[in-house]
Amino acid sequence: MLRNICRYHTQFGKAVWPFSFSHVKHVPSLLAQLQKAKYGSATTERKKFYETVSITQGEGGLFEINLDKRKLKTPSGKLFTVPNEALAIAVANEWDVQKDTLKFYTMHLTTLCNTALDNPTQRTKEQMISAALKFLETDTICYRVEEPPGLVELQTNEWDPVMNWIEQRYNVVIGSSASIMGPQISEETKETFHQHLNSFNFWSLTGLEFVINQLKSLVLSFALIDRHLNVEEAVLLSRLEEEYQIRSWGNVEWVHDYDMYELRARTAAGALFVHLSSEKTSVKKKILQD
Amino acid sequence: MKMAAVCSPLRVCRGILKEIRSAKGSGYRLSPVYQYVLQQFRRNQVTGAQLCRAQMESLHAAVSYRCLLSSTRLHLRLHLQYHARGEHTPQQAAALVGLRMPNQPGGKGWET
């Protein structure tokens, strides 16, 4: 019944709409409607409602995104502000390349910024650090198999160098294990990593947590953030067993490649987010001495 | 530092600009991201040190950005190719077995 009324109204234009309020349930305010509508829902897609995207610098040196004349807001209604120009430009570009419908699953940097700004689950820095340290106990790099020999060899050749690198870099002992229990992480190791993680600010920690969850490994995330690996290498090492199986049994494009590109996109977004949130740029001019 | 094959700044810059062009279409040169990328690459060109850490860091960020742009493009392409078709309409489902939907000239009883 309600559906037929709505169809009747859309057919006969907006003029009829104001007179029919008595038939309809309470309509939320226009602003709240626009806000919910901007990000769409799980089932409906949002059409592209703007032409141009630009960035402006607002108060406190924070950058804002403008879609036509309107300022971009987070899903909870706060103003979308970014502390860094490069990140703002990258987010603006994500909105700019959308065509016809908005595909939010391709806008990874926007999603990360929204999470950092809104903090919907009210995470504190302490919670994120302890979650990351807990992940070390189930780190992918630490779990080795004993058969098939091809995979054992691959794990030794590819994962051992990264393990050696992180143990040397942070002066810790992690080790790997082939049993179900996994490696035993000592308290000193946890303390070292705790101190290191404390030096990240909230935004960088949000990005780092995202990368750890994508790669399923703290060791690989640190290797990526410390620029020891690039994104493609980190993703390859994270998916080592899958790559091994693909080599034996063949590649299925709509699963393997699909997952790989999605993982690469998310990890790249996370790494870029961490780097941009923790950088300070300055130019030092030096005089050439002859 | 273990870096994959193409990590010379020129190649990375070209890669990023190509991605921007294929994502945007026309008018890509006027977009802020294009200008910003070019400006950053030019700024980091001149450095006194032989192994400049800031330069390496910027290059890593640029490689990550290129990876982000190309992976989102390829992921979207695969998604639209394989996972975005949705269900068949009744007409398409009937056509699978070589049948056609019936066509009642007056419309069905409950349709307006």
Describe the protein in words:
With 290 residues, chain A is of the alpha+beta class. In chain A, 53% of the residues lie in helices and 6% in strands. Chain A has helices spanning 2-11, 30-39, 85-96, 108-118, 125-136, 149-170, 187-198, 202-215, 218-225, 231-238, 240-249, 253-277, and strands at 46-47, 53-57, 63-67, 70-71, 81-82, 101-102. In chain A, the strands form two sheets. In chain A, strands 2, 3, 4 and 5 form a four-stranded antiparallel beta sheet that branches. Chain A has a two-stranded antiparallel sheet with strand order 1-6. Chain A is globular and about 60 Å long. Chains A and B meet through helix 3, helix 10 and helix 12 of A and helix 1, helix 2 and helix 3 of B.
Give the N-terminus to C-terminus distance of chain A in angstroms: 86 Å
Q: What fraction, in percent, of the residue positions of chain A are helical?
A: 40-55%
- Poorly predicted regions of chain B are 1-5
- The helix content of chain B, as a percent range, equals 55-70%
**Largest interface (CB < 8 Å):** A-B, 39 and 35 residues
Instruction: Give the topology string of chain B: H per helix, E per strand.
Output: HHHH
Overall geometric form of chain A: globular
Query: What Rg of chain A do the Cα atoms give?
Result: 24 Å
Beta-strand residue fraction of chain B: under 5%
Query: Helix/strand-derived class of chain A?
Result: alpha+beta
**Helical run tally of chain B:** 4
Q: What's the multimeric state?
A: heterodimer
Q: Return the average pLDDT of chain B rounded to an integer.
A: 86
Q: How many DSSP helices of chain A?
A: 12
Write the SSE topology.
The complex is a heterodimer of chains A (290) and B (112).
Chain A: H1 2-11, H2 30-39, E1 46-47, E2 53-57, E3 63-67, E4 70-71, E5 81-82, H3 85-96, E6 101-102, H4 108-118, H5 125-136, H6 149-170, H7 187-198, H8 202-215, H9 218-225, H10 231-238, H11 240-249, H12 253-277
Antiparallel strand pairs in A: 1-6, 2-3, 3-4, 3-5
Helix pairs in contact in A: 4-8, 4-12, 5-7, 5-8, 6-9, 8-9, 8-12, 9-10
Chain B: H1 9-24, H2 32-43, H3 53-83, H4 90-96
